[in-house]
Write a structure and sequence with these properties.
The protein is an alpha+beta fold. It contains 21 helices and 17 strands. The chain has helices at residues 15-26, 81-87, 101-109, 207-220, 236-248, 253-258, 273-285, 296-310, 315-333, 345-349, 361-373, 379-388, 401-407, 427-432, 443-446, 453-456, 459-472, 475-479, 481-484, 493-505, 509-513; strands at residues 3-8, 35-41, 44-50, 63-64, 70-78, 119-127, 132-137, 146-149, 155-158, 170-173, 178-181, 186-189, 228-231, 263-268, 288-293, 338-340, 393-395. Helix 5 packs parallel to helix 7 (273-285), helix 8 crosses helix 17 (459-472) and helix 17 packs across helix 20. The strands form three sheets. A six-stranded antiparallel beta sheet has the order 2-3-1-9-8-10.
């Protein structure tokens, strides 16, 4: 992922201001180590740090229209850029970059072109003819983006907090699926899918329709001019991404450039559930498998760097970001610049184990809607920033706009978890790829129980974090937590420890307001905690907090204990459902 920074209407066109913008842009250099650019028009500055994925030779930014009156700095990938170029046949493009279409679409359609883009993106577009500008972020918020305001009337845009937090009076996360226009002086939502209203859909479940939609989502993300790989945890989601990529890679432009031999990457503690499952999937698919190990101490040593790059104090995000951060560094060292990953499936299909307790299909569906809308604060933020910290790009096919429309139109009755009928979590997705004649995956992988990434890398990872933070946060510190941190007051020593580090890097009140809070069990929203009264006594984001569902769950008597959970042979025993092949 690239890094963008823009300062607009700052009433200062001095050399000193230009130097300051350059200085702040360098804080984003890790995101785009391949090239940097800065464009100035009066008191408007557009800076860019480039990670070159498409057209590495000529796609440097900012990008322009024919007469350079429209200027764009953008972070993202536009998967339908070739189709859009055909609609813009009367335009002349300066580069082969997929993002080169943005300035020309603006010329043709004005501010209403954003919904035409199929991809992930954050961009700033400046029309120098009247100094108007627009800013937009992709539908779900796969790319990170922040907006701030200065006392001098300026508007600031940055891919990360660290690009603007020291210079703005107020700043916040730029809302996904929105556009900010200087003409209107405010936001408007450009992304308006049917599911956004949370109305209950009624389209009958068709496994083949769902399968084709996801295959399309994966194959369009094979657009690359650089070496790439697949993140493989051995869970259902990443394994399906890996299988589809392996099945359809041959014949693509990527295969012609780099060959049809796929590289998969996995990270975990020695003996972790994910490592064993990922190894088996890679062997089954016949790919080159790279397995990276880390120790609990390696992870603890990286925590400060992780919080600086991920820019959150949310417990579950930090737990999961740390192994991904460590793995991304290893992947980049092998010369890989792009990876495909499996984020988003659990939100769309109700894959988290707490969905076992959904009281009815209406509540089930509304919770999936709430989870998708919040992804930019959790898994999207993690996937984007943990990889970008090392100049690596992550693509997430489950969050494809068209695929989400198909998946979220299914009658949620089909998604409901019904143990007595053999329907475990994400049954509709598993069934869609359960092909006896041309199997995508081994049965026991296809029906492997959900493991949250922070659990699957090794259960002792979370246990080790709790033990470490308990040694550094005293009971006395916790007793004063509500006075020290009145907003999103940490309720555990682990949360308090992360909060201290975050506040050291980002001390502004605006910064702490960018991080979500509220009660959660096993990654639920606060609303879903109401599904089970027992959960209010066991508010932990790990999947093992879902007592009675996860078979390696915390001890019911001491749910927040630092003692390691019981694991048999290093592998969690799967729940047995009639008629479903399981891991033994």
């Amino acid at each position: 992922m690239c890094g963008i920074l823009a300062v607009l209407g700052c009433s200062d066109d001095s050399q000193a201001k230009r130097v300051r913008v350059l200085e702040l842009s360098r804080r984003l250099k890790h995101r785009g180590p391949d090239w940097s650019g800065l464009y100035q028009h009066g008191d408007c500055y557009l800076a860019h740090q480039r990670l070159a994925i498409i057209d590495p030779a000529s796609g440097d930014q900012p990008l322009f229209n024919e007469d350079k009156s429209v200027v764009v700095t953008v972070n993202g990938e536009i998967y339908n850029h070739e189709e859009l170029r055909k609609k813009l046949a009367n335009h002349k493009f300066r580069t082969g970059s997929d993002c080169d279409v943005i300035a020309h679409l603006y010329e043709e359609y004005g501010e209403d072109f954003v919904d035409m883009l199929d991809g992930i993106f954050s961009f700033v577009l400046l029309d120098t003819r009247d100094n108007r500008f627009i800013v937009a972020r992709d539908a779900i918020g796969v790319t990170s983006l922040y907006i701030g305001w200065g006392l001098d009337g300026s508007v600031w845009i940055s891919s990360e907090l660290k690009g603007l937090n020291d210079d703005c009076e107020h700043f916040e996360s730029f809302p996904p699926g929105h556009l900010y226009s200087s003409k209107s002086g405010g936001f408007r939502r450009w992304y308006n899918p049917p599911w956004f209203s949370e109305a209950i859909p009624s389209v009958p479940y068709d496994p083949l329709v769902l399968r084709r939609a996801f295959e399309n989502a994966v194959t369009k993300r094979l657009m690359t001019d650089v070496p790439f790989g697949v993140l493989l945890s051995g869970g259902l989601d990443s394994s399906l991404v890996a299988s589809i990529t392996a099945r359809y890679l041959a014949g693509t432009k990527a295969a012609k450039h780099w060959g049809a031999q796929l590289h998969y990457f996995c990270v975990g503690l020695e003996g972790s559930p994910d490592l064993k499952a990922a190894r088996e999937v890679a062997d089954y698919l016949g790919t080159v498998h790279h397995e990276f190990h880390f120790t609990v101490q390696d992870g603890i040593d990286a925590i400060e760097d992780v919080i600086y790059h991920i820019e959150t104090y949310d417990v579950t995000t930090i737990r999961a970001s740390t192994p991904m951060f460590l793995m991304s560094r290893k992947i980049k060292s092998l010369g890989v610049k792009m990876v495909i990953s499996g984020e988003g499936s659990d939100e769309i299909f109700g894959g988290y184990l707490y969905f076992h307790k959904a009281p009815n299909k209406d509540e089930f569906h509304r919770e999936t809607c709430r989870k998708i809308k919040a992804l930019h604060q959790y898994d999207c933020l993690r996937a984007n920033k943990a990889t970008s910290a090392w100049g690596l790009e992550a693509r997430v096919p489950f969050l494809d706009k068209e695929f989400i429309n198909v998946a979220m139109s299914i009658d949620p009755e089909a998604k409901m978890i019904k143990n007595d009928e053999g329907r475990i979590e994400k049954w509709v997705l598993r069934r869609a790829f359960d092909d006896e004649e041309h199997p995508y995956l081994p049965k026991h992988i296809l029906y492997r129980q959900k493991e949250q990434f922070s659990d699957g890398v090794g259960y002792s990872w979370i246990d080790g974090l709790k033990a470490h933070t308990a040694r550094h946060v005293t009971d006395k510190m916790m007793s004063n937590a509500s006075f020290i941190f009145p907003h999103n007051t940490p309720t555990t020593k682990e949360a308090y420890y992360y909060r201290m580090i975050f506040e050291r890097f980002f001390p502004q009140n605006s910064a702490r307001l960018t991080v979500p809070g509220g009660a959660s069990v096993a990654c639920s929203t606060a609303k879903a905690v109401e599904w089970d009264t027992a959960w209010k006594y066991n508010l932990d984001p790990s999947g093992r907090a879902d007592l009675g569902v996860h078979l390696s769950a915390y001890d019911a008597e001491t749910p927040l204990s630092n003692k390691p959970s019981k694991v048999i042979d290093g592998i969690p025993r799967m729940m047995a459902f009639p008629g479903v092949a399981i891991q033994s």
